[in-house]
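User: ok so my PI wants both of these folded by tonight, can you help

Assistant: No problem, let's get them done. Here's the first:
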Amino acid sequence: MTKDTDNKFLNVGLLILVTLLVAKLISALIMPRSQKRLPPVMKGWPLIGGLIRFLKGPIVMLREEYPKLGSVFTVNLANWKITFLIGPEVSAHFFKASEADLSQQEVYQFNVPTFGPGVVFDVDYSIRQEQFRFFTESLRVSKLKGYVDQMVVEAEVIEFLTSQLFLLFTTV
């Protein structure tokens, strides 16, 4: 009786294995392959990838991998895949890519708390472009120089109020 049960389990296991292999073969033949060339991937341990090397020192890791893999390569860091673009000739692709090719909104979601909701990376592309135009104008060197006097006045006011509060609490 146990020999029949063992044979059934073996047959079911083999059937599942063969089914998976055939399905993989059929999908490889039928499914069109992407025409996009993906960047090379840094070799690393399964699952953790280059996480340990990255944590030891990302600059050292990048300097070691750049000569081997070139100016564009991917590093697996646990469950994230991070692609590095090193140098101005390839970095331009990142900054000038269309929203359909490279979504800055997805990449920079961690910055939403920095700017607040409804600002920069928490809005759709057209509004973000409008906001960037505003930021670009406000952050020009000539404009930044004009902010210095205002910042000095604000710092002096804060210093004065702080000293007055200190005096108020120390005399009571």
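One down. Here's the second:
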Amino acid sequence: MNGIKQIDQSLFLFLNEMHTAFWDKAMFLFSSREIWIPFYLLIIYVIIKTFKRNSIYILILIGLSIALSDQFSVLIKNLVERLRPSNEPSINNLVHIVNNYRGGTFGFFSSHASNTITVAVITSLLFKNRMFSILIFAWAIIVSYTRVYLGLHYPGDILTGWLWGALIGFGFYKLIVFVQQRYFKSNLPEIRFKAITNEESIQLLLFVIIYAVTILVTINRLTKYQFFGQ
């Protein structure tokens, strides 16, 4: 176990030391839940458009899956009590911290990793579109990586969060299908077979690309004109 922890810590330090002033600002923003609200709303819109009346219980169950993913992570953090790297005395002086933000006391396992993969698994199974699946899992990986970049989680925290999130996502997708088959069978379309179109997945992809690029360009401009404090 100590050997695994040492590897985890070494890999964390290797990844965390790769940083620049520009990416500090970008990763801090990309790590926040609020910055992705427009993306969440667009996904909700596609769910409503695609699944019609079924979208009511689909969205409720997705919300419950995220709550379970998040709160179970909090429970495990308080049970395991593994310090975040930002709070670990033995490497404290080696960890790159952004905006002096160190998160909560404990970090195993990552709620960000768990929650994003939960969303990625459920929506990819619902939408059944390869392009969207690539997009949503790339988004989940990037958001998860920001937690390592910011010094808030070890890679092991992220991997465990992904595993738990995948289990929750798959389980709740199966629950969504069961609920329709058991209680709303007459409500079309049938969730097991309905998929979004390539046009819709392209629109989602373009939105994320344009949105992310706009944020990065804005950060670059504000940094250039010294809007951010040094």
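Helices lie at 2-16, 21-31, 37-51, 55-80, 111-127, 130-149, 155-183, 198-224. The radius of gyration is 19 Å. Good luck tonight!
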